[in-house]
Design goal:
Elements (H helix, E strand, L loop, with lengths): L1 H11 L4 H8 L3 H8 L8 H11 L3 H5 L11 H12 L4 H17 L1
Protein name: Transcriptional regulator
Organism: Bacillus coahuilensis p1.1.43
Keywords: DNA-binding
């Protein structure tokens, strides 16, 4: 069931229900109802938000597919979204990474 899978993924990521609800931008009460299988038919939009907050694909939730162990941490996704929202380009972000690598090698 979808609710059981959401709960399993949330626990694997060491997230509280409150934290997942906040990251996904969904109501904690609705998330709780999903996890307890009181609500068995969540919307696609809800699943997209939860999957993104968990750093997994929707297929992982819907079909219980194992995720690649190199899946992106949700905190990194948040940082990338913040950078995009602030107007930072991919090139600027790459330049920062290269500078940081250079600086690290100078030590």
């Amino acid at each position: 069931m979808i609710g059981e899978r959401v709960k399993q993924l949330r626990l694997e990521k060491n997230m509280s229900m409150t934290e997942l609800a906040e990251r996904a931008g969904v109501a904690k009460s609705y998330l709780s109802a999903i996890e307890r299988n009181l609500q068995k038919n969540p919307s696609v939009q809800f699943l997209e938000k939860v999957a993104q907050a968990l750093g997994v694909s929707m297929d992982s939730i819907l079909f219980n597919q194992q995720e690649d162990k190199q899946a992106v941490d949700p905190d990194w996704l948040d940082i990338v979204h913040q950078a995009q929202d602030s107007g930072i380009t991919k090139e600027q972000f790459k330049e920062f990474i290269e500078f940081n690598k250079w600086r690290k090698n100078q030590k």
